[in-house]
Structures are given as structure tokens and as C-alpha cells.
Design brief:
- 4 copies of one chain form a homotetramer.
- The first copy, chain A, contains 9 helices and no strands.
- By secondary structure, chain A is mainly α.
- Chain A is globular, with a radius of gyration of 21 Å.
Chain lengths: ~220, ~220, ~220, ~220
């Protein structure tokens, strides 16, 4: 992509964000759906299928946490692209790095399911899993901060909105770092925390509360 | 996402529906296509391949019912987004919950295929399968009712259209609950019913009849 | 979807074609890519890997024919949606039937690869494969004829264009029926024919020839 | 598609590029995500899982190189479609050929991972892998040159931009040919080179350097 332009000393290629959005939606969708391939069907044995399913609980926990994490990453990503005006060559690459960690998540998820409740190896599996979650959150923050820094965000967003998204993205990084530390010491506890983080991110407790409180005060905005 | 805005006491982030549609189309497409991975190829043995294929009928029944259910869910979902004006943060999350149950469907489908005609375990497999179908239908209704409640639907739709979609979505919930009940008692019969429900949803019998009746009366609208 | 409208005695819901296109592109893309999962990696044995790959030729032939057929179906489908003005509820369902046969293609492709050069069962595999190709071609024609019949095609297309697409879609149906017949008698020959049909569809021999002839006569339209 | 039109001696059907972009994004996304299916989970054995993961290094190298190559192909492809005004029937077919080689990449990637550090067969695996990378780069160049030749590129791009993209796409072809040659002689060295090529393509060293240099001189364009 050319670097010298008539407009000034430097110029970056400026791209529509549609293809970046399409590739991202594709990879988010596929990664979320591929997770299901790891849900093994209990074999037809003398054992009751209900018991067998119950024994597979680590698989289901890993599946839920990963799906919720991918879902939340997609939510944040779609808010970011809502604000984006255009993309440049570096933003697309940072986004590819994010998509790399999204698309690889089924692998540590599978490892987690395999090694959970398997003393010794559990620690390695939980740590690799946590690092992957951290990388996803980290690159979402990096994409957002890069877009802000380079002025790729549409001008008509209020300062408050932009600041609100920033204060939403960055704290999750800290919580992942803390839980990875906990996991080195107590892997099982870390998995519970990853589940809680995912739940908190995916269920907008504050919004729901506010909505309910609001509803008691006023009539619904669009009654039918 | 910020909650206090200059416009009034509360404000929700308002998003285009394009990315929600793209992620949904991706997950519907992948879930529908992943089902085929469970169609096992008969091994090359002394046995005739035709016989082997015929013996695998539960796999094909499960495949057909699941494909038809996903197809019908997509149909309803695309009518809903046709009416949507914009999305908010909670709608996106309800949609993610719907997509969770769509993307997980290959798992109970596989279980159904494995355990059908396997007395005892068949009951558990059929019930889990039915609960998954119910969850898909349920979350489609929830997404629609939430959008109506929050006024996310474009204003230029006639009351009649909106009511028509509502009366189309809700009855399927009842039929799923009834068939899950039947399945606890007679699993094989429930599968037949799931197939019939899917057929009724996917083949618009009333529209076809009307179309044919109309055709006899008038000339086709666009003859060539 | 409501059937009685203020505009007249009957009314169909009229939908944008964007979601139908998105779901279709998703399923075409996934079906085409899933085919690669059937390309088995030769095991690390004493045997030379080159020899092993050469022995797997039926897999590669099946892969190529299926990819070319899906590619060609997508080409025709994208020309059809280019002409479409809007969709109705039945068109979406006919399109879902088409997508069903597209998404199921990896299964008979796998069977074909497994049973080719396996006398006896080969006949069944080749016939099922041919019926799948016929169903894809058939539903593409049905979607197109239905859209014409119901006046869902944009008015600004010339009669000639519309007729040209029709005369392009329908003959392939005849050739598939003929080759299925041949396959009942000589399965191996039918596979060669399926390959030839796919090649003829995917390589626009006439256009290339015309282009070359045109080039000799005139200068390229956009020289740089 | 009709060839004789009232507008002149010849005419090609002119299509929007949206469906071509959607199919391409789908196949790029799926091919990139399917790669993860080849990352085998170490079995639960007496052996330490960390050691087992370390022993699988060829798998991870192959995964990284393939993901980076697909990512870079997508980057170039999205710049090309940014310039495209419309598509014709041949461009769509050339694009399908490109997508064929993108979607098949998981196969040689798997072979590479299997045969790396396996003297004798390694050579064949590395060569097939290199030919696949060359085919992807080659067809991206062909799509671009065909679009230029046929005047499918929007007129409002500066000559400099267009030339810049051309000089970016073509040299990678040469480097692949050279490394395939090296691989016939020293397969392991070729894999290192494929990794280096992918890194150079994916990390825009020059842009980053320029950006940093620019930053030192001036204030960031959009400070917050």
C-alpha cells in the first residue's frame, strides 16, 4: 500500500470496515460453533447415559465458559466497529491477531475439559486457557485504543460514550491476570472464577436492574 | 456502555442490526452444516451398503428434523430482524442465548441418532433433544417480545403484521412442551411428532393452498 | 405472517434478500470447506507418502467434482439474487431446500471416495452422489422459475438476460439425469462425466474464446 | 449469461461484488478456524502434558504459518475488493480458484505437521505445502491483474495506489518459488523461510517504523 500521497507527507490506505466485520463475524461464529464438536457423545454401554453425562461435567463447564467468553468478545467487538469510521492496514492486522486467539480457543477449551480433575496436568491446562482468555480481552483493548489513537473513530460520538467503552474494556484485563495467578495455585478455583467473569460480562446485571426499576416507575415505552 | 446521557434519565446504546444478523447467519449456517459430520459412512464390509444405509435410519431422521428446525428458526429470525429498527445491549445478549441453543443442537442430534431404538437411554436422549428445540423456539419468542416491549421495532409496520408474527411464534412453544411430555412416556412417538412439527413449520401448507386456489382464479402475476 | 392486507385480497410478506444471501453464502462456504476434512492424511508407515497419496486418487476426484459443483451452484445462485428484487416466504423455503442439498453434499462425496473402485457398492454410491448433484441443480432452477413466476425479479432486466439465465440453468438438469442413468450401468464412467460437467460449468470456455478473439481484434479495454 | 446486447458488440454480465466478498470472507474464516481441529490434545498419560505439548512443535509451527498466510491473503484480497467496482463472470471464477486453494490449505498443513522431522517423506510434504502457498499468492495476483486488464477497478483510484498494490503482490510469488526450490534440498530450512515470509507479510514493519518516527515528530492525530 502506497505511503506517499498528494495529501501530505504520509497517507494510510483507508478501508471500509465491512470486510473486517464479515471476517470477524465468520470467525466468531465458527469458533463458537466448533466448540460443540468437543462435546463427546457417551458410548452405548451398560452404564446409564444420565450418569455418563453427569460425569462429563468438566466438558460442559469448559464449553459454557468458552461460549460466553466468545459471545462477550463479539459484543465488545461489535460496539467497537459501531464506532469505527474506517480501518487502516495496522488495525486490520491487530484485528487478525485478535481473531487468531478467538479461533484457537477451542484447543485450550478441549485441553481444559480433558485435564480438569486430573491433578498435576490440570494446572498447565488452566493456565494456558487463562492466557488465551487474556489474549482475547487484551487484543480487543488494543484494537480499541489503536483506533482511538489513530483517529479512526467517527467524530459524532460523545466523549462520554467513548470513555464508557474504555472503562468497560480495560478492567477485565486486570481480573484475568489475577485469576491466572490464582490458577497457578488452585486451578479448580480459577475455572470457577472464569465462569463468574463470563457470567458477569454476558449478563448485564446493572442494566437489567435499572430496566426493572425504570419499569416500575414508568409505563413501557412501546406498549401493544 | 454508558448509562447516563444528556438526552434524558436513561439511554441505551443503539446499534445497527447488521453485525447481529451476520453473526446469526453464520451460526445458523454452521450449525446446519455441521450436522452432516454426524452422518457416518458405512464401513466397507461384506454387508451391502444399501442395507447398512437403511439400518442408519435414526441418523437420517435426526438429521432431517434438526435441519428443518434450524431452517425454520432462521426463517422466523429473519422476519424478526426485518422488523427491527435497531438493537440494544440486552437484545444482543438474548440473541446470543438463542444462538447458543442453535449452535449446541448438533450435540443432542448426535445423541438422538445414537440412542434411538435403544430402550432405556432413548428416553433421556429424546427429552434433552426436545428441551433444546423448546429453548430455540423460546428464545426466538423472547427476542421478539423484548424487541416489541422496548420499542426496537420500526414504526411503519402495521399492527396486523406484528400481531401475526406473534401468533405464529408462540403456539410452537406449547406444542413442544406437549411433545416433551409425550416423550417421557413414549420416546419414539415424540420423535415422529418433532418431525411433523418441523414439516408443518417448514412447509407453508396454508400459503401453498391459497396460492394454488388463487392461481386457478386469476392469471399468474408475472407471466413470461 | 399475515395473509389479509389492506392492499388487496392477498399479500405476501416481502423481505429484503440480504439475509437469504448471507445464509446461502455461509452454507456454500462451509460445505465447500468441510469437504477438505475428508482428505485423509496418509499414515506415517514404511510406505512412501507419494505412493500413498497416489493411491487415494478417488478421494481427490470426489473432492474436485464436489468443490466445482458447489462453486458453480454458488455462481448461478449469485446471478439469481442479483436479479432478485425481494423474497417471499416460499422463496426462502425453496432456498432452504437448495441449501439442504448443498450442505449434505460432503456425505455422498465421502461415500463416493470410500466406495469408488469397490465393485458392487460403487453403483449405489455413484447413484446417490448423482441424485444429490441433480437435486442441487434442480432446486436452483426451481428457485429461479418460482421467482420469475411470482414477479420477484427486478423489472429493469431485459427479457434477453432473463431468458439467457433460464436457458443456462435448465440443460444441466437433463445432463445429470442422463449421467445418473449411465452410472447405473457403468459407475466409473459416470464419475468421469460428473467431472466433465463440473469443468464445463466452472470454466466458461465460450467466454474465454470470445475474449481471446476480441483481444486480437481490439486493444484491451483498460490498458495500464 | 447472454453475450449479445443492445449496447454493443459484446457485453459481460456485471455483478455487485457483495456476494463474492461474503463467500470469500466465509471461506477465509472457515479455513483459518478449521486449522485448529488439527491441534491434537495430548492424551492423558503418565507423561507430563507440558513435555507432550513441547514435542508437538511441528504442529504449532504449521498452524502459525498457515494462519498467517491465510490472514495475509485475506488482507490483500480485501484491498483488491476495496478497489473493485464490479465483478464479471470470469473474475468470480478466478476468485473461486483462489478460494479452492485457501480452503484446501488445512490438508497440506496437516501433512506438514505429520511429516515434519520425519526424514524422506518430509520433502514431499514441504513441497506440496509450498505449492499450495504459491497457488494462493498466484491466484490473488491473477485476480488483481485480471481486474485491471478488464477495467473492473473503480476509476477514482490514483495510478500510484494501483501500482503500489501491484508491486506488493507480485514479489511474494518469486520468494515462494525460491523457497520451494530450497525445500527440495533442505525441507526444514524451507519451513523456517515460510514462517519468515508470513511474518514479514503480516507485520507491516515499514509502516510501524514510519508510524513511530512520525509520532516522535508530531502529536498524535486524535488525542484523548
Amino acid at each position: 500500500m502506497s505511503d506517499i500521497t498528494p495529501d501530505g507527507p504520509r497517507r494510510r490506505i483507508s478501508l471500509r470496515t465491512t470486510r473486517m466485520e464479515a471476517l470477524s463475524d465468520g470467525i466468531f461464529a465458527i469458533a463458537a460453533t466448533l466448540l460443540v464438536l468437543d462435546l463427546a457423545i457417551p458410548a452405548v454401554t451398560s452404564k446409564n447415559v444420565g450418569h455418563q453425562l453427569a460425569e462429563q461435567w468438566p466438558t460442559y463447564v469448559a464449553y459454557l465458559v468458552s461460549f460466553a467468553t466468545i459471545g462477550n468478545a463479539w459484543l465488545n467487538h461489535s460496539v467497537i466497529t459501531e464506532y469505527l469510521d474506517r480501518a487502516d492496514a495496522i488495525l486490520l492486522r491487530l484485528n487478525l491477531a485478535l481473531l487468531f486467539f478467538v479461533s484457537v480457543l477451542p484447543f485450550p477449551t478441549h485441553m481444559l475439559a480433558e485435564y480438569l480433575s486430573n491433578e498435576g496436568d490440570e494446572r498447565i491446562a488452566v493456565t494456558i486457557y487463562g492466557l488465551n482468555l487474556l489474549a482475547i480481552s487484551g487484543f480487543i483493548s488494543i484494537v480499541w485504543h489503536y483506533a482511538l489513537w489513530q483517529g479512526l473513530v467517527t467524530k459524532d460520538n460523545s466523549e462520554a460514550d467513548v470513555r464508557a467503552l474504555t472503562t468497560k474494556l480495560d478492567p477485565s484485563l486486570v481480573s484475568y491476570v489475577v485469576v491466572i495467578g490464582i490458577g497457578l495455585w488452585r486451578p479448580g478455583v480459577a475455572v470457577v472464577f472464569y465462569f463468574v467473569i463470563a457470567l458477569f460480562m454476558i449478563i448485564p446485571f446493572r442494566t437489567v436492574l435499572r430496566e426493572l426499576r425504570h419499569r416500575r416507575r414508568a409505563s413501557p415505552p412501546h406498549p401493544r
